[in-house]
Amino acid sequence: MASKPLGPNDADTDEENVQDEYIDPEDVLEIDEEDGADYPMDDEDELEDGEGAAGPSGENDILEDTSIRSFTNHASSVFAVAVHPSAQIAASGGEDDLGYIWDYSTGEVLVKLTGHTDSVSNVGFSYDGEMIATGGMDGKVRVWKRVGQQDFKRWTFLTELQGPDEVMWLRWHPKGNVLLAGSNDTTVWLWNLPSGNTMQVFASHASSVACGEFTPDGKRILTADTDGTLILWDPRSPTPLWKLTSDDGRFDLDGITSLAVNPASTVAVVGGASGGIRIVNLAKGDIVGSLAVHDEGESVEAIAFVGFAGTAEVVVTGSTDGKACVWDLNTLKIRNELKHGDSVTCLVPLPAPKSHMVISGSADRVLRTWDTRTGALVKEHQGHRGPVLGAAVGHEGGFVLSAGDDGACLVFAAE
């Protein structure tokens, strides 16, 4: 059972204008108040000091620990890790029903994020780093706010948002204090912060909403479900702009498991449970391409756009087949194949000027930094004793932070 919320709800909860031209606070609605990336560790898999973890082939092998710091306050699997946009501060959420804010330069705990009664599966900082949200399997979304202008070490509980029955994912708006969440109960929720008012409830899905994103320009929302339906929304309307379903044979992906939107907010790449990948024009909802190289029946678990010089539009897709594939969307051809020994669970691009590099995390317990232009392995990051479940890049791309099924968050030099 989680402990009481941290601190009083003493933050200013007056309505604030959303700092974005596309969402107006006056649009607030008045309403009444697993997949391949989750690998729980069984008790029999717990390791004694000095004992190696079971490798992908089942044998006990010991990987070299190349991390520069570890955070081990979680009592069991860590599902999510996020980094502050400007400070060396991280947040993590785990199976122990807890989240933490911690300093990844020292490993110091800054705040223990309590109040959930089931696993904290999602964490995220707002675009300016002034707020952080946690989402749980208990359906709660809890928000904390930074105290003071200079001190990143003081946070106070702000509000609890209710609506979903189980939070599948959280996303902050790229330009304003607006939070989006997808639920297992087929709904998608949009809230304005710090007031906590519900701005919109999107209810056109028929199954669990597996993934979703704001477009990078902040104008639209793209969501997808486990039945294989993809929907584009205007944040101000509960009516879809367009919808693609598996009734269209060209879009039958056996359920959607991942998606990403290009930086220009014009194209989405969508991955499915059966290994298929589709390219969708966001303006019209047209299918404009199909990619096929992942093994049939192997789920596409992660997708990330990476930056290249010139005109190439490049995306990386990661699958349970152990491959991360680099695609040129102009030619629909594969450029490079990046290999792990087990399922690829997450992909995180580095920021400019290193945006041609991507971090891949895997169930083989290893993270790798790749140069997607050549397919060259830049650096291997080892130290986890269980599958890597999440990753984030911090401090201008200088550090890689990981979340592990072994209950640890590790910090590595990116290259």
UniProtKB/TrEMBL annotation:
SMART domains found in the cross-reference section:
WD40 (SM00320)
**Acidic residues composition-biased segments:** 11-51
* CDD domains in the record: WD40 (cd00200)
Repeat as UniProt keyword: yes
Keyword Repeat attributed: yes
- Assigned keywords, A-Z: Repeat, WD repeat
Which InterPro entries does the record associate with it?
Answer: WD40/YVTN_repeat-like_dom_sf (IPR015943), WD40_PAC1 (IPR020472), WD40_repeat_CS (IPR019775), WD40_repeat_dom_sf (IPR036322), WD40_rpt (IPR001680), WD_repeat_multifunction (IPR051179)
User: Region annotation Disordered: residue ranges?
Assistant: 1-62
Signal peptide segment: none
Q: Which Pfam families match?
A: WD40
Source organism, top-level taxon: Eukaryota
The protein depicted here goes by the name Ribosome biogenesis protein Sqt1
State the taxonomy lineage.
Answer: Eukaryota, Fungi, Dikarya, Basidiomycota, Agaricomycotina
